Every structure is written in C-alpha cells, then in structure tokens.
User: Fold this.
Amino acid sequence: MMEAAAAYYTATGKRRLLDIMTRMAHHIDTVIGPEEGKLHGYPGHEEIELALVSMYHATGDPVMLKLASYFINERGREPRFFDIEAEAREGESARRYRDPGDYAQWHKPVREQDSLEGHSVRALYLATGMADVARETGDETLLDACRRLYENLVHRRMYITGGVGSSHYGERFTFDYDLPNDTVYAETCASIALCFFMRAMLSTEPDGRYADTMETALYNTCIAGMSLDGHNFFYVNPLEVWPEASRKSPERRHVLPVRPKWFGCACCPPNLARLIMSIGKYEYVTDGDTIYQNLYIAGEAKLKTEHAEVTLRTETKYPLDGDILVTASAGEYALALRVPGFCRGKFTLTVNGEAVNANVEYGYAVIRREWRDGDRVRLTIDVSPRRVYTHYKVREDAGKVAVARGPVVYCLEEADNETPLSGVSLPSSSELFCRFVPDKLGGIVEISADGTVLVDDGDDSLYRDTPPKRKPVKLTFIPYYTWANRGAGEMTVYVRES
Assistant:
C-alpha cells in the first residue's frame, strides 16, 4: 500500500493515499523501534523496508528513512525477535517461529550475511532495502554487505536466465551451485525483485555488471512469466520441461508446461505489470552531471542532471539487433552508454558519424562534451550467437551447453524439434545460424544448428550392451521468453555437447 501511495502521488500529484500511509508509518513508529517500551521487531516477509524509502522520496519525511533503517539494522540481532515470539506462543503459532532463521533472513545481522538464503523474494526485497538505505544514509558497511550478496548471487546461485531460488520447497535458495533445471522454482517475482535490487545498486554506484544482471533477468525470466498475448502467466520458470513428468511426478507438479490464467496467490502478474510500466526508472540513472543508460529501449526520456535538463531519444530494435541510436539535447554533461559484458568489448561508437574512442569506465562508454541539440550517438554492439557453459560444480549441466544471443537466452522446444529433447546433442563444431522470422512468436531471431538426436532402434530393453542409435537433425532454438506459447511440449535450455 505504501508503494501504491508513493506511485499514485508521483503519477497524479494527489496526496490523499500518501497522507493515509504517512499516518500509518507514523503509527508503526509509535509501536516498533529501539526506544524503551516499543516492540524491538522486524517483519517476517520483508518489503516494507524498500516501500518506506519510496515514501521517503515522496514525502521527505525523516520518519520513513528512520523506520526503514531500523528494520534493517535490527534484523538478526541478539536477542532475536522471532525467538522471543516463539517463547511467548504455543502450538502451531510457536512452531512457525522455531527455525534457524535463514528462511526469513534473520539468522544473522545483515552486515554479517555473505550469501542469499531462504525465501528468494524476501531475500531480494531485503537486499533492495539494504541498498536503498545504504544510499540514503551513506552507510558503507551496509553497501559492502550488498556487494557480497550480489557476488554470491551471480557467481553461485543464479540461473543463466536470471532466475533465482532453485527449490520449490519454501521457494528458496539452497546452496552454492545447486541449480537443477527440471525441479527449479525461479519464481517470476524473484527475478523482478532481482531487478529492484540491481536498480537500487545502480542508483548507489553505477556499475555495468549490475545492469547486465538486471537485463538478463528482464529479457528472460521476467517476461517469460507472461504469455505473448498478455493473458496467461507463469509463477515458476523452469529450464527444462517434460509434460508427462509435470502431470505425474509429485516433485515436478509445480513445473507447468503451459501458463495458467491466474493463481490463488497472484503476486507475479501485477508485480510484472508494475515492472513493465515503470521500466523508465530502470533504463537511466543520473549521478551528478552524468547520465547512465542501462537499458536500450526505443523512446524518449527527460532527465535532470546536476546542472541541466536533458532530453534523450533512443531509436533501436535491440535486442533483435545491436544498433542503438541516441539523439541528445544541448548541454554540458556526460553520456555513459553501457557496453554489455556479453559482447566482450566488441562495439563501435560514433558521434555525428565520426568514430569516438570513449573511455570505458565500470562497463560504460563515457562521452563528456558540450552537446548541441540533435547530436547523434550511435552505439553498435555485437549480438552474435554464442555458446554458454556453466561452472563445473553445477552438476546438472556438466557436459552441456546453452545458446544465447545478446542478452537473450535460447531454448529448444518440442514444436520445432524432434524428441526426446534429453537425447539431443549439439556438436562443438556446429555453426550457429541466425535468421529473423517476422511471423513466428511475435517476430524473433531464430537460431539453427546441425545436431543429433537419439532414435528408437527397435530394441525395447531397458538396459543393453550397445549405445542407442543417433541420427542427424536440424536443431531450432527460440528465445526462452517465447516458450510455451504453442501448447504443451518438451523444452530445454541446456543440451549435451558432443
């Protein structure tokens, strides 16, 4: 409700809901806090922390920032709030609080946490609140904790699609490198929360790595959470689907082969809607006289730097291709264009048709100059298809490979390929070919390659002394976000490499 109040005020200038939620925050402050006689507690499902910072931006009221800081700083301190709550309760009510605390991130004070634990959405909402409070208060120790959590996430606990939370038991993180493809949870809300966290980090310290992670989640798991017509949704975002197993295996019944229309707990559809409708907040970040462009989406933006009001117009079909044209308005400022990590430094940059050797600082090509109205900056990024491998400790993907193009991860779907997809192999020597198909899945760049697939050789023995036969096939890869729009069928992101 606080987020809604701040958003409604920002959009309309009307204060009625904002004033109501301001009174609510002040009421909470009379009940919870460090002072004698108040409850020394914090929420079970974190979210109010980042919402209070949104209220702080809308109102300027210091109580909002004070409360957000308190909830974050108090979490996990001894004596631990939920231990006290458990002692005061009986029966089922008490049992809810008797756990190690990592499920709801109160196992340690936040500055001592070095890995994302427990419920994935809660963990990332907390991390977002931590980054927000670190920025507003200048707390470097809190920011250091955010950096450690980020490093743990991207190097040990995040799927190639930007999905997070590998277990459906508790919708949670488990342990480093535990990234199963077929029993994964990867809730849509968790990847949306990851985008929140990355935006908070970008607003605190612009770094292209945060934008790379945000873009990965956005173009893959987030938008895969909704069908192409906008009518159906995924809660769970698997990297491998076998429809019969989804129907008959208790461990895979949460993994659906098609998107349902709604859910009993319908947090993901409206969460995705608010992410898409507020995408401009993620595309740009300003810091002093520098404008950082994190995402490349066609449109016009009006931005304020320290000394100027700037209008930028972006023309692009990215990520269908890597050509980005930005038209700038007059003023003295720096324009920092993100050079995605996937292109490995393969890009060109021109201003008004003339090549520019811009410094690349923290993943951004930075151009500082006195701009004139209509100056045109063209950034061309290499979005060639590439193979992606996992760390050797990710057991499920040993000997396997995935295919990506630009920020978009690809998959094989039964509608285009022979089954079983588990028997498909992509030779390491096979070239990856791209072609734009305008009338397929809303218009996609399709990737094809020569491969092989296991075939029925007439021997129905469960075990045998000779390997099953293979035959050559043409493999067709489609963007992951487009899967399950043509009925139920097998799907896989990773394939064996021969």
The chain has a mean pLDDT of 95. The first helix runs from residue 2 to 12. DSSP finds 13 helices and 21 strands in the chain. Residues 112 and 145 are 7 Å apart (CA to CA).
